[in-house]
Amino acid sequence: MKLRLIGVNHRTAPVEVRERFAIPESRLPDALQSLCKYPGISEGLILSTCNRVEFLAHPENGSEADLRGFIRQYFSVDPTDFEKYLYEYHDDDAVRHIFRVASSLDSMIVGEPQILGQMKDAYTAARSVGAVNSRLDALVTRAFAVAKRVRSETQIGTSAVSVASVAVELAKKIFGELSGKVVYLVGAGKMSELAARHLLAHGAEQIMVANRTYQKAQDMAEAFGGQAVLFEQLYDTVDKADIIISSTGAPHFIFRREHGEAFLHRRKNRPMFFIDIAVPRDIDPEMNKLDGIFVYDIDDLQQVASRHIDDRRREADRAEAIVTDEVHRFEERLKTLSVVPTIVSLQQHMEDIRQAEIERARGKLGPLTPDQEQALDAITRGIVNKVLHTPITTLKTAAKDPEAGTLIAVIRRMFNLRGSKEEN
Predict the structure, then answer these.
(1) Considering only Cβ atoms within 10 Å of each terminal Cβ, which end of the chain, N or C, has fewer?
(2) Could you give the residue numbers annotated as active site?
(3) Intervals of CATH 3.40.50.720 along the chain
(4) Is-contact 102 115, C-beta < 8 A?
(5) From the CA atom positions of the chain, what is the Rg in Å?
(6) Mean pLDDT along residues 96-120
C-alpha cells in the first residue's frame, strides 16, 4: 500500500513546537477536507493529541503526496524550519508506525489506553467527511484489531503509568497528603476526568469544574458530586482549589503570571499545583517562577513517567513482536488483494464471451428443451473454467512475488481487459 505519514510527537518535539501544529477538534473536519483536496492525495487521516500531531495520506495513482507542502499551505509555515522535529514514514514503515501508535507502544506512557480512543475519534472524524475510504479504512481498522490483540496477549496495560497516576504522585510530593484538597478542572476533557478520578481515589475531597460550555461542566460535576462553575467566573474561583487540571484547547495562555500572583494573595500564599495537559498550553511557564505555584506541563509529566518504563519493558518487547507479525500479515493480505480486481475482470470478460456464444448458438439451433439448455450451459461453463484455471492459479500464486505487477499487466493485455489495475 502506498502511504505517506509525517508528524511530530513527544519524543521528537517539545510542547512549544507540538502546539504550533495542534488542530483542535472544532477545526478537524476543515483540516481533513483540506488535506484530501491537496494535490496528489486521495485519502487522509489526522491524529492530533497533546502528545502528537500526525498526517497520514494515501496518494493518488503515481503521486508522491507532498505532506510537507500541505503543512506549508495549511499552517502558513516553512516545514524546513521544523525539519529536526519532523519524522516521516512511507509504505510498510507507515503501517508499522500506525500499529505501534494504536497499541500504545509509541505513547509517552507505554500501555496507556487513551491513545486508542483518540485514534478511533480521529477515524470517525475522517469517515464523517469522506476522507477515509477503502485503503485507509482497511489499515486503520486493522490497527484497532492489532491493539486489541496486544491488550489480550500481553500485560502491557496492567502496569501502565497513566497521566492520572503521575498527577497523584506529584501532588503527594507537593502537599504531603491529598486529604481535604480541592481539585479544579478547567475544561471537561477525558484526560482531565481520568486525573480527577485518580485524585479523588487518593483522598482529594471536592471537585470543581469550569468549561466554556456550561452544560458539559454541569454533567462532569454531577458525575463527581462536585460543583459546576461558569467559565466567566474562572479567575474569581480558581484560588479556592489546591490542584488545577487545565485542558481547554484555547489558542493562547489562559493563566498568566499576574493571575498566579492574585491567586496566591487571596490564598495567603498556600501552594497551588497546576497540571497543564493542554496543547497548545493553557498556562504560561512564567507562573512556575512564583513561590508557592507549581506548574507541570505534558513534557514534565513524561519525565516523571519515564522512571517507570523498566517495569513495562518486557511486556513492550512482546507487544513489539506482535506488531511485527501483524505488519507482515497485513503486507501479505494486501499483496493477495492486488490480484483480485484482475481475476474478477477476467472472469467477467470470459462470462460475457460465454453468454454471447450461447446466444449465437441459439440462433442456429432454434428452440432448445430445458435439458438441452442445461447441457449447453454446463458445457460452456466447463470450457471457460478450464481456460481460466491456469491464469487465475498463476495470479494467486504470484500475488506475493515482487514481479506480480508485471504479470497482472501481461494478463490484462493478453485478454484485452479494460480499465487499470488497482494500485497497492
Answers:
(1) C
(2) 50
(3) 163-307
(4) yes
(5) 29
(6) 91
